[in-house]
TrEMBL record:
This is Secreted protein. The lineage of its organism: Bacteria, Pseudomonadati, Bdellovibrionota, Bdellovibrionia, Bdellovibrionales. Residues 1-17 form the signal peptide. Keywords: Signal. It comes from the Bacteria.
Amino acid sequence: MKSIILFALLASQTALAAETCFNSSSARSWKYDHHTRTLQVRAAGGNYDIQTFICPELPWARKIAFKSFFSSRVCRGDEVLVINAWDEVVDRCRIDSVTRSVN
C-alpha cells in the first residue's frame, strides 16, 4: 500500500515538473488575441499563450493579475484575475493551459 501511494506521489510530481509554467512576477506585458481567444504573456524565459475556460470579461480587461495556488508560478489550474479601470476584479478565469509561444 505504501509503495502505491509513493508511486502516485512521484508520478504527480513528475507531471507537475513537466508542465509549462512561468513566474508571475516576471510577466512584463500581455495582450489578448480576439481571433484565437488566447492571452499572450511576455515573461522572463519567453512568451506564453494562456487558454482559459469561459472568461467573458478578459477581452475588455484594463489590467490582469494572476492567482497561483502553490507559489508565484502560474500553471494550468491557476487563475487570471480581470481588473477594470477602477481596480476592481470583475472576473476570475481558470487557466486551462499554458504553452510556450513560438514567436
